[in-house]
Amino acid sequence: MKHYRKELSFHLPHRRALVNITSEVQKAIEESGIREGLVLINAMHITSSVFINDDESGLHHDWEVWLEGLAPEKPYERYRHNGYEDNADAHLKRTIMGRETVCAITEGKLDFGPWEQIFYYEFDGKRTKRVLVKIIGE
């Protein structure tokens, strides 16, 4: 069995941002030479998320509104975690959206259903963050 590891790096200029990383993951699969296997994609920071869903702007807006309703950024003092940092809401949002996803690789391609895309969701940006892409297979 072969394996391949790659890190994607993001430095987003806003506190929250959504990035479609499907093409970057597919590129890593091609670099690996693995034709049949699995790819794990996980956020390496506790205030960001990786997940699969539809790439549709209305849905992107709905996530932002829904998450902000569940764990609003402000007022900062509502959270016991906030003291040195003001990112308690980012930790909660990450828990809701998830840490990672695993995808099948078939014939060297992501084996997706219709509309499925891989997203990186940043909840506490303005600094460099990483995403791990780990591929195993033959």
Question: What does the model show?
Answer:
Strand 5 (100-106) and strand 6 form a beta hairpin. This protein is α+β, with helices and mostly antiparallel strands and 138 residues long. The protein is built from three helices and eight strands. It has a five-stranded antiparallel beta sheet with strand order 1-8-3-5-6, with helices on one face. A three-stranded antiparallel beta sheet has the order 2-7-4. 25% of the residues are buried. It has a single domain (11-36, 46-127), classed as YjbQ-like (Jelly Rolls, Sandwich).
Summarize the structure.
With 138 residues, the protein is an alpha+beta fold. The protein is 25% helix and 39% strand.
Notable features of this structure?
alpha+beta; Jelly Rolls; three-stranded antiparallel sheet; 3 helices
Set down the secondary structure blueprint.
Blueprint lengths: L1 E10 L5 E4 L1 H11 L4 E7 L4 E7 L2 H14 L17 H10 L2 E7 L2 E2 L5 E7 L5 E10 L1
Antiparallel strand pairs: 1-8, 2-7, 3-5, 3-8, 4-7, 5-6
